[in-house]
Amino acid sequence: MYYDHLLVRYGELTLKGTNRKMFVNQLKDNVKRALIPLQGYLVKVKRDRMYVELTEEADMEEIIKRLTQVYGIKSISPVIKIDKKEGLIYQSVIQLAEGFEQNATFKIDVKRVDKTFLYDTYELQRNVGGVILKHFDHLTVNVKQPDHEIKIEVRLDAIYIYEEVVAGSGGLPVGTGGKTLLMLSGGIDSPVAGMEVMKRGVTVEAIHFHSPPFTSEKAKDKVIELTRILAERVGPIKLHIVPFTELQKQINRVVHPRYTMTSTRRMMMRISDVVVHRIDAHAIVNGENLGQVASQTLKSMYAINHVTTTPVLRPLLTLDKEDIIRKAKELGTFEISIQPYEDCCTIFTPKNPVTEPDFDKVEKYEGVYDFDEMIQKAVENIETLIIDRYYKNDKEQSTDALIEDLF
Ligand code: ATP
Ligand code: MG
Fold it and tell me: Best mutation site among 181, 183, 185 for ligand 1, i.e. most ligand atoms within 8 A of its Cβ?
């Protein structure tokens, strides 16, 4: 392996003035966590970029793969780091060019941050090009469309030589943007909605409404697995599982059949609101998408949203279903989400739910019973799991998971 470092470029952090230090430190923590339990690397943080020093035992491909999933990283390049000596530059580019295919074309691209360096940009470009041409008969220069572009960065501390630039996920480091509560069902949409806000630096705790025996342990396992996949990217996530059966039964007793779904959503929202305050979060996130189903018309959203003053974020609001599916596939949640399961709502869903619920009517139906106590009881009986990437449902955690806990 000729590469001894990975150069990690920050995303939008550069724009964030005074908060910069906090952002960079958070990104460093997130990177370190993402690389557990890999071996043979050392993370070094600078103001404008990060370096991961690699030893012989490092699995570079795996490290790069994991870095591409960390939000706040724009791109990653495997680099050769050398002292600022002319001879070492030639030696390194020859080493690189040895790997080029027969009759390939190349271009040298120099960036000179250290203006005191022996040669200026143009001279260095020409010298390095000359050395390669002399050493390899079969290679030629092509500045417009080269097969290989060798980049040489002459910086204050060292010279970095590289070719490849791997795109990162962009966004902001998770942990820099406050906390939200994600309403996580077993469907396709809500995991994607969660990821969309995490990409903007926000931490997420998840809440799931579970109605045994109407919904099985399998449905719960599915939500746990979806949470685990999200945790692969962002570290451990708290999952709050709410016992929802009694509330659903009561709704079905007192609310007109066409309005039970609206009411169910409102109760979910009310419980989420209590939890938001308990966990010191500042918004609720869900996977709602305008017009997708009966509960997601504007009038429905109005009636459901009315029970809370907490901001409800709907990152998927205007997306087409096929775009959501594409995102779910990229995220790795799609295959889990499409497994059959009983949604606590579909089971109680009437054949003919109202699509344009009359707000006054919902309030009137619900008004015949005092739901506060039931809501309180549901909240008191929440089961909270901490799900990390190694989480196994049999509760046996691997050593790696324990290491992560310590971290
Ligand atoms: P999803 O694919 O996320 O299930 P959906 O298109 O099936 O979405 P609905 O079932 O109407 O839509 O739910 C809308 C949103 O309400 C979901 O995206 C989710 O955020 C929330 N939600 C629905 N059911 C539950 C549940 N049992 N627990 C937690 N949140 C839920
Ligand atoms: Mg659903």
Answer: 185
73/124 same-domain check: no
**How far, in Å, from the CA of 38 to the mean position of ligand 2?**
36
Residue nearest to atom 2 of ligand 1 (CA): 187
Question: pLDDT tens digit string along 274-284?
Answer: 999 999 999 99
- 373, 245: one domain: yes
Residues 160, 212 share a domain: no
Q: Are residues 67 and 90 in the same domain?
A: no
Give tens-digit pLDDT for 15-73.
567 788 889 999 999 999 999 989 999 999 998 899 999 999 999 999 999 999 999 99
Question: Does residue 406 fall inside a structural domain?
Answer: no
Domain extent, residue 45, equals 1-81
pTM of the complete model: 0.88
List C-alpha distances in Å: 168 to 70, 72, 123, 163, 255.
Answer: 7, 8, 32, 16, 49
Q: Which of 225, 224, 230 is nearest to 193 (CA)?
A: 230
What count of other Cβ atoms lies within 10 Å of the Cβ of residue 68? 15
Name the residue with tokens 């809500």.
190
